[in-house]
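Support case: biotin complex. Customer-provided input:
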Amino acid sequence: MVLPPDMSTSHILLQLLRNHTGNWISGERLSRELGVTRSAVWKHVSRLRRDGYTIASAPRKGYRLTQTTPLLLPEEVQSGLRTRYFGQGKVLYLEATDSTNTRARELANRGAPEGTLVVAEKQTAGRGRKGRVWHSPEQEGIYLSLILRPKISPLEAPKITLLAGIAAAESILSLADIDVHIKWPNDILIGNRKVAGVLTEIASDLDEVSHVVTGLGMNVNVRAFPPELQDVATSLYLEIGRPVDRSALVRTFLERYEPHYTTFLEGRTDAILERWKALSRTLGSRIGVEISGRRITGVARNIERDGSLILETPDGKMHRVFSGDLETL
Ligand code: BTN
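Agent response - structure generated as follows:
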């Protein structure tokens, strides 16, 4: 096995066990391959167990990985990740943090490269759009932030929300054939309930973006919501009826997002909008939205190339909506 030189012994041990998942691998062989004593092998196994891996051990047989960890550890997220750079470098893993977007912004300000990923098991101040709180219970959801450095004007940046929304909806569709759709601009719904949301935060100089942080929150294995969310939120567990592997889902999200981002950088906005429209139910439906403090209702007619929504009011006038919360009527 060819291993990168900076891999820790526990990490290499994990690779060896993973390559033999379900089969025994002797302590002697592990100690030989890792170049450590058998008691050191035991210590590394204990550490992996503390990280949530289920590893059986038996005299004369050795060790066997029976179940991977439920945690969103970098080695899990990166194991078999098929991207060029999204999530491929250092992944900042946090058991708890206020907001992964805040952590990502700090990293970006210190020069972290494009594709740097921050994941947390829990957020104490997860942010949604418009200053809302994102419910972030421990180990039940995906709370991640990805740093991007597109060489674009700040005016182009809102489209990135659309890309991440498409990738999030596609990741869910890869699990099950369920009624997932995007509500403009960034809500991912199953039926009428929200399952995921995207928060795009942009830092820019006068005419160029210096970095973008894409924050994704997804209700994955949430079994019950607080009363105020019960009617408006749902989770994959509640919809599909089984727990979902969060690490695999993060990988799928990154693997979907990266090619859409490349399409965007190549300027192929039409392809993005087409995909977005196919996944959205917003167009053609009657909606209400607040524009400059005034609530208007009408029919959503189109998404423009800059990501804004065109709303037709009953008097036939077209209004351009750049941001806001849509109410489907
Ligand atoms: C929304 O629907 O209003 C957007 C929700 C975005 C929530 C995610 S969770 C990970 C990242 N960190 C945050 O503080 N917010 C985003």
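Residues 246-265 form the longest helix (20 residues).

Case will auto-close in a few days if no follow-up is received.
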